[in-house]
Structure formats: structure tokens, C-alpha cells
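Comment thread on ticket #2218

A.B. wrote:
> Attaching the input chain for the structure job we discussed in standup.
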Amino acid sequence: MVELIYALHYTKSFNNGEMTLKETVKHFEQFFGVKIDNFSHSFLRIRERMKGRTVFVSKLQNTLESKIKEKDQ
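C.D. wrote:
> Ran it. Output below, let me know if you need it in another format.
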């Protein structure tokens, strides 16, 4: 989920980019009913990945593209 939060934050997807990263995390916590501890450390671990840094976001993209192709047929 941290990948998604950072991706949405860096693309200024909320409030025309006026929302801070910390505010974005808090909204996700409230919406999904989870606690995201130390999200900056989680981002550091994402950056340290050797094989595919954006595993979750890539999976989202691939799944959506697959479903779109499926519906086109």
C-alpha cells in the first residue's frame, strides 16, 4: 500500500498536489482502517529492492490492462 500512496502523492493525485504525504497516509489509514507505521522506512525498503522496485503498482497496472483486454474481446 505504501507504493500506491507514494505513487499517488508524487503524481499530485489528491487536492491538486496540495496534500502532504503525511496527510495522504492518514487518509489511507482512515479509509482502509489500518495503521501504516513508519511509512518513510517502508519507502526506503522499496528503494532498496533489487528486482522491481514497484512490485505492487506494476501488479495493479498489469491486472487492469489484462481486464481491459479481456473486456475488449
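A.B. wrote:
> Thanks. Noting for the ticket: Residues 61 and 67 are 10 Å apart (CA to CA).
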